[in-house]
Amino acid sequence: MLPVVNRTECTGCGICVDDCPSGAISLDDAGISVIDKNACTDCGNCISACPAEAIAES
């Protein structure tokens, strides 16, 4: 189960980007978090780090 970003809830704060140990998260042109499914190790750091609760396991 990999994390999924709720694009309407994401504020683009970038905390998840900084907290991802595998570098699997970046911000797109709209400033919304995007998770690279191939690089994600499903550690859950982004889920617990997101202050907007915009990331959840799929």
From TrEMBL:
Iron found in the keyword field: yes
Annotated SUPFAM superfamilies: 4Fe-4S ferredoxins (SSF54862)
UniProt KW keywords: 4Fe-4S, Iron, Iron-sulfur, Metal-binding
Residue ranges of every copy of the 4Fe-4S ferredoxin-type domain listed in the record: 1-30, 31-58
PROSITE patterns the UniProt entry points to: 4FE4S_FER_1, 4FE4S_FER_2
Coiled-coil segments: none
A molecular function GO annotation: metal ion binding
Protein name: 4Fe-4S dicluster protein
